[in-house]
Amino acid sequence: MPEKYFEIRWHGRAGQGAKSASQFLTEAAVEAGKYSTAFPEYGAERSGAPMKAFNRIADVPIRIRSGIENPDVVVVFDDTMLGLPDITAGLGEDKIMLVNTVMSPEEVREKTGFKGKIYTIPATDIALEEIKRGIPNTVMIGALVKLTNVVPMEVVKEKVRKTFEKKFSEEVVQANLRAVDRGYQEVKGDA
Q: Domain Pyruvate/ketoisovalerate oxidoreductase catalytic spans what residues (predicted)?
C-alpha cells in the first residue's frame, strides 16, 4: 500500500510569496522531524503571472516526485484567480481551500463552485498592517497551521525567528511573528 502524504497546492502570482511560503513550510516540517518536499511550477516567468507551488509532508521518506493531483489543501494567495478551473482541480469535497481574501467563505463558494471546506483570511491586509508590506506568506502559513496542524505552531514561530533575524531587525522579526499569530487567530471558515 502506498504511503499517504499530506499534500498542499499553492496558487498565486509570481512575486506574491507562494513559492517562498511553500519552501518555508517544508523547512519548518523538516525541523519538526518530518519529511517534506517543496517545488514550484511556473508558466510564463514574469512578475504577476499565475504560478503554483507544492508541498508533500510525511512521517516517512517521500519517494514520489511528480506533481500533486489530489491535494489535501489548496492555498490561494490571490482571489482574482478564483475563477480559474485549475484552482479546484483534484480537490475533493472532504478537503480544504484556504483563500487570501476579504470575501466570506460563502462568496468564495459562489465564485468557485467548490463544495468542500472553505476558509478565508484577509492576509494581504494583515501583512500591510503588521509588516508594512503586502506579502501575505507568513499570515497564510499561520492560517494553514491552524487548519491542518501539519507543523506545530511553535516550530513555525521558531523558524520565522531564525529565518528573519539573519536579515532583518528585531522589529521586523516581531512583525512577522505577529503576522503568523494573526493568521492563526483570524482565519474564518464555514466548516
A: 14-185
